[in-house]
């Protein structure tokens, strides 16, 4: 009886994602310089400018990972920004000191959908993004999402999943299907893969998955 209740709940969450414009973008940065002194001298100004975006409420999640410049370690970030488009993300970043001075660049921007789960922790985090291999019948999609979204809710309660985003995948045939991405706590990439393989979409070989190391999630 419980299981029957979960399917329409998951379907409702998924359909909500189809009715609203995706407003969250995952952003990855990388260094454009090998001058450690330049980075060190500009770090405070960059941090203060980025803090203003946090205060405006447009930064949803923030992750820090280690990087090396000229044999010296510096933190670099991945984050999730609320925006109307990828162009708006870039426009918000352009005024920041490290972008104006060509010290850092955006290596990737991904539309990850609408946030529907969150848990604040400070641990090693990996992004796990699912992609349907081909269009599926609505009933099958609903059944798979019903199982997976309930699993994600349970993982969130256990602290394994820290955030989840619902989005829409479009196919060449103009078909659209709801999909999702999650941030998971894992010891390493192999552990993150083991988590991915527990998802119904992966077990049934209906979807592939991509894993990216995010770093350590910070409370903001």
Summary keywords:
8-stranded antiparallel beta barrel, 38% helix, Alpha-Beta Plaits, signal, alpha+beta, disordered N terminus, 8 strands, 220 residues, single chain
Q: Would you give an account of this structure?
A:
The chain is of the alpha+beta class and 220 residues long. It has two domains: 2-20 and 115-218, Dimeric alpha+beta barrel (Alpha-Beta Plaits), CATH 3.30.70.1060; 24-112, Alpha-Beta Plaits (2-Layer Sandwich). Helices cover 38% and strands 39% of the residues. The protein is built from seven helices and eight strands; from the N terminus they run H-E-H-E-E-H-H-E-E-H-E-E-H-H-E. The protein has an eight-stranded antiparallel β-barrel, surrounded by five helices. Helix 1 (2-19) crosses helix 5 (138-158). The longest helix has 21 residues, at 138-158. It is globular, with a radius of gyration of 19 Å.
Strand-helix topology:
Blueprint: H1 2-19, E1 24-31, H2 36-55, E2 59-69, E3 72-82, H3 86-93, H4 97-100, E4 104-118, E5 124-132, H5 138-158, E6 161-170, E7 176-185, H6 189-196, H7 200-203, E8 207-218
Antiparallel strand pairs: 1-3, 1-4, 2-3, 2-8, 4-6, 5-7, 5-8, 6-7
Helix pairs in contact: 1-5
């Amino acid at each position: 009886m419980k299981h029957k209740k979960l399917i329409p709940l998951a379907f409702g969450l998924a359909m909500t994602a189809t009715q609203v414009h995706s407003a969250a973008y995952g952003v990855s940065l990388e260094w454009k310089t090998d001058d450690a002194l330049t980075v060190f001298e500009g770090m405070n100004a960059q941090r203060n400018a980025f803090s203003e975006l946090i205060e405006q409420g447009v930064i949803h999640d923030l992750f820090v990972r280690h990087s090396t410049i000229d044999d010296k370690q510096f933190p670099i970030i991945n984050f999730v920004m609320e925006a109307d488009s990828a162009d708006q993300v870039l426009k918000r970043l352009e005024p920041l000191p490290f972008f104006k001075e060509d010290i850092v660049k955006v290596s990737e921007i991904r539309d990850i959908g609408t946030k529907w789960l969150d848990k604040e922790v400070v641990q090693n985090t990996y992004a796990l993004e699912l992609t349907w291999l081909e269009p599926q019948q609505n009933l099958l999609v609903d059944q798979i999402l019903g199982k997976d979204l309930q699993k994600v809710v349970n993982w969130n309660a256990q602290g394994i999943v820290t955030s989840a985003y619902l989005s829409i995948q479009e196919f060449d045939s103009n078909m659209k299907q709801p999909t999702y991405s999650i941030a998971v706590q894992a010891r390493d990439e192999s552990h993150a893969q083991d988590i991915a393989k527990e998802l119904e979409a992966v077990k049934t070989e209906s979807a592939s998955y991509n894993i990216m190391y995010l770093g350590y999630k910070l409370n903001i």
